[in-house]
Amino acid sequence: MNHPTLKGTNRYAAQMAPSEISFDDRDLSKRELADAAVVACRAFFTDPFFVFLSPDPVLRNQGLVTFFHTMLKHLGDNSRITTARDAKDKIMGVAAWLPPGAYPQSIGTQFAQVPGTLRALYRRPRALKDGTAFLNAMAKAHPKDPHSYLFLLVADPEVQRQGVGSLLLTEGLERADLEAVPAYLETQKEDNLPYYRRFGFEVVNDLRPVAGGPQLWAMQRPARR
Questions:
Q1: How far apart are CA 214 and CA 134, in angstroms?
Q2: pLDDT band at 7; cut points 50, 70, 90
Q3: d(Cα 153, Cα 48) in Å, to the nearest integer?
Q4: Which helix (H) or strand (E) holds 127?
Q5: Which end of the chain has fewer surrounding CB within 10 Å, N or C?
Q6: Does residue 141 register a pLDDT over 90?
Q7: Nearest-CA neighbor of 15 among 148, 149, 222, 171?
Q8: Which of 80, 74, 91, 85 is nearest to 39 (CA)?
Q9: Nearest to 102 by CA among 136, 130, 68, 74
Q10: pLDDT by residue (tens digit) across 165-191?
Q11: Where are the beta strands (DSSP E) in 119-215?
């Protein structure tokens, strides 16, 4: 089912992203899911968390594509995946949201994610242990009150810092405001903190679940209605 675009999204598209980039909320085909996973892989390839889990760049590239394809394919009921596309309809950015009440994901959804996660990390068993430690810490710190959860926000490196992320994030925050719920996210990059603060997020928790591993910041933005 397609989701209606919120009033004002076109205005944000004009102000925040290159003129050839537009917001899209159509359901993704199998091919588009694969394309979205590649964009996420490119965006997170140098992310400290994934470098820590998989230092070898070849294995990391293979694992990230598999991991993100699995997560996007099995995101759960009522989840939303939105994209930013260029004039040729190529996906240049992806946002994935879990609506209020959708976190934690259902047992069925979590089981559906297991095979792909194992394929992504089986060549480095230590990554499974460390990744699980991060997931457990994130789950423990996750807010219990209704909220909109930004599960993923990425822009292809070709168009980073050109407003693609802002285009996708703003639409999701407008929706959260209409539902009168806060928005919540995690980030592994300290450089992202000022960016998200521009949209009203503030750090509510910082985690370091694995000794020698990267820090993780949890951020929340209150509802504005």
A1: 10
A2: very low
A3: 16
A4: helix 125-141
A5: N
A6: yes
A7: 171
A8: 91
A9: 74
A10: 999 999 999 999 999 999 999 999 999
A11: 148-155, 183-187, 202-207
Cross-strand pairs, 97: 80, 150
* Tokens 């997931």, residue located: 135
Q: Which long-range contacts (CB under 8 A, 24 or more apart) does 133-140 make?
A: 133/209, 133/210, 134/49, 134/207, 134/209, 134/210, 134/213, 134/216, 136/209, 137/207, 137/209, 137/216, 138/186, 138/207, 138/216, 138/218, 139/104
For residue 221, the cross-strand partners are: 183
From the list 147, 143, 15, 20, the residue with the least C-alpha distance to 84 is: 20
Q: Name the residue with higher pLDDT: 18 or 153.
A: 153
Q: Where are the domains of the chain?
A: 19-221
Name every residue whose Cβ is closer than 8 Å to that of residue 6 and which is 6 or more positions away in sequence.
Answer: 171, 174, 175, 178
| Distance (Å, whole) CA 106 – CA 89 | 32
For residue 187, what are the CA distances in angstroms to 12, 14, 203? 24, 27, 10
Q: What is the DSSP letter of 62?
A: H
Distance, CA of 42 to CA of 122 (rounded, Å): 21
Our CA angle for 146, 220, 142, nearest 5°, is 55
- Residue 17 tokens read as 């992203």
Q: What is the chain's mean pLDDT, rounded?
A: 91
Residue in 10, 19, 8 with CA at minimum distance from that of residue 159: 19
